[in-house]
Amino acid sequence: MTIRVLLVEDSPIALVVLKRILNSSEQIEVVGEAGTGLEALNLIPKVQPDVICTDLHMPQMNGLELTSEVMALYPRPILVISVSVQQEDTDQIFQLLDAGAVDIFPKPSAGMTTDNQLLQQELINKIKILSGVKVKQVLPIGAIAPRLRELCLLKLEN
């Protein structure tokens, strides 16, 4: 079975590098590309990806906002691939994971060093693993509050 991947990346160079890496695996098919989170939200129902790989910093809707929207509307595994997510960015990492991202991965560069080749294989393996992960819908607090209020009122009435 082919793993369907949606790439969300605003850098044309990074998009080419990611596509080249993922297309090197016979088990992975890039079914869509988006330059912003908003474009990705429109593509998801059309291309039905198994896994979404997104950048963190993008115009219009960043990776954190996209993750929150996807998990509320179209829950599926999300891998954040970003150059700027380092260990010192722990707050941002926790926000991404709390929003529903399954993992965070360093963005590969265009060079073909041995370390980079290992990183590329690790990315392919990670996507294969994530394709089997079952995720649950994560509703934003604003969507949960009215239902919670309704349940509390029902409890008070009984």
TrEMBL record:
Gene3D superfamilies: 3.40.50.2300. PROSITE patterns: RESPONSE_REGULATORY. Residues 4-122 form the Response regulatory domain. GO terms for biological process: phosphorelay signal transduction system. Pfam families: Response_reg. Keywords: Phosphoprotein. CDD domains: REC_CheB-like (cd17541). The modification 4-aspartylphosphate is found at residue 55. It comes from the Bacteria. Coiled coil: none annotated. PANTHER family: PROTEIN-GLUTAMATE METHYLESTERASE/PROTEIN-GLUTAMINE GLUTAMINASE, PROTEIN-GLUTAMATE METHYLESTERASE_PROTEIN-GLUTAMINE GLUTAMINASE. This is CheY subfamily, methylesterase domain chemotaxis response regulator. It comes from Moorena producens 3L.
